[in-house]
Design brief:
With 322 residues, the chain is α/β, with parallel strands linked by helices. The chain has helices spanning 16-27, 82-85, 89-110, 146-166, 190-200, 219-231, 250-261, 285-291, 299-313, and strands at 7-11, 31-36, 55-59, 72-75, 113-119, 170-175, 178-179, 204-207, 213-215, 217-218, 239-242, 247-249, 267-270. Bound molecules: nicotinamide-adenine-dinucleotide (NAD) and uridine-5'-diphosphate (UDP).
Length: 322
């Protein structure tokens, strides 16, 4: 059966993930209202959409109430990189918590389905590996990452309370590290740092001994997962991990970036940030069962595309990818 076209609100729509989501929703025929305060996002990410007849861009901070009419809400507004979210921790918590309350209130009034962009950070520095959704996490409530981790945990609590108390139709995606074109070159995340350092021939900065692990999901796969979760019928009122279970040490990632770019950059070691999780890898059995979803893009392929994007964005010569 043909899917009815919808009016969709994307908060944080001018950010890295949000802008890709806007592209995909428009491509399938939806109307998109992109709301963003441009804290870490930028008009540049959605510049190509500004003339689109079904696209609207609104500058707004989600910590304040929003009165619009839509059928679905993707709540992505929140800085995601540790450098950015620690820059103004109080604003980060306000965005996560007040933003969730405002968007849930809107969903309640409109009887709209709402999806929360939650995070693997709700598991903190995990003691269970890989992390299934049942795992309750190991989170420091008073550290420098807490504004984000606890803000996102509180947002999840709000989502489930609005569901139980007000029957709001919720979706909660626990997103693991995602990368791809339109990441901010200065956002301090590991993939953007390593690629920009490699392309500029600067030293590649490994924090700690580089033996900590992460699992990297290419943005196209991630957006697929988010949209499948939003569209899922039946009982999807459970958190769902969305990420790529391929697990790499940060040192392996650095070596791969060096090989792919052919850079002469050396690897240098810097102190490990406080509360930096030692290992992270999603158990995606629930997403596979509930959504029939699994990531398709291997790390090397996704990195090649991302390297090409950064070379162009920085006005540097694209390496002959090896
Ligand atoms: P991003 O920083 O590129 O995008 C976030 C967007 O939200 C930006 O455009 C920013 O300007 C906007 N924003 C921030 N505060 C706002 C506010 N108060 N009001 C309105 N807009 C606001 O980050 P991203 O990687 O695209 O992440 C999007 C969402 O996905 C975030 O909620 C993040 O926590 C979540 N997430 C991302 C990852 C990842 O690896 N990219 C992992 C886990 C969770
Ligand atoms: N990291 C690193 N060098 C960098 C940036 C990050 O070694 O220049 C490490 C960081 O300490 C962490 C991992 O890479 O262990 C992922 O960091 P990121 O900030 O991308 O995301 P996180 O998963 O920690 O939120």
């Amino acid at each position: 059966m043909k899917r009815a076209h919808k009016r969709v609100l994307v908060t944080g729509g001018a950010g890295f993930l949000g802008s890709h989501l806007c592209d995909r929703l428009l491509a399938r025929g939806d109307d998109v209202l992109c709301v963003d305060n441009f804290f870490t996002g930028s008009r540049d990410n959605v510049l190509h959409l500004l003339g689109h007849p079904r696209f609207e861009l609104m500058r707004h901070d989600v910590t304040f109430p929003l009165f619009v009419e839509v059928d679905e809400i993707y709540n992505l507004a929140c800085p995601a990189s540790p450098v950015h979210y620690q820059n103004n921790p109080v604003q980060t918590i306000k965005t996560a918590v007040h933003g969730a309350i405002n968007m849930l209130g809107l969903a309640k009034r409109l009887n709209a389905r709402i999806l929360q962009a939650s995070t693997s950070e709700v598991y903190g520095d995990p003691t269970v590996h890989p992390q299934p959704e049942e795992y309750r996490g190991n989170v420091n409530p008073i550290g420098p990452r807490s504004c984000y981790d606890e803000g996102k945990r509180c947002a999840e609590t709000l989502f489930f309370d609005y569901h139980r108390q007000n029957q709001v139709d919720i979706r909660v995606a626990r997103i693991f590290n995602t990368y791809g074109p339109r990441m901010h070159p200065n956002d301090g995340r590991v993939i953007s740092n390593f690629i920009t350092q490699a392309l500029r021939g600067e030293p590649i900065t490994l924090f700690g001994d580089g033996q900590q692990t992460r699992s990297f999901c290419y943005v196209d796969d991630l957006i697929d997962g988010l949209m499948k979760l939003m569209d899922a019928e039946g009982d999807a009122h459970v958190p769902v991990n969305i990420g790529n279970p391929g697990e790499f040490t940060i040192r392996e990632l650095a070596e791969l970036v060096v090989r792919l770019t052919g850079t002469g950059s050396e690897l240098v070691y810097r102190p490990l940030p406080t509360d930096d999780p030692m290992q992270r890898c999603p158990d995606i059995a629930r997403a596979q069962k509930l959504l029939g979803w699994a990531p398709q893009v291997p790390l090397e392929q996704g990195l090649r595309r991302t390297i090409g994007y950064f070379a162009e964005a920085l006005g540097l010569e694209a390496p002959a990818l090896t």
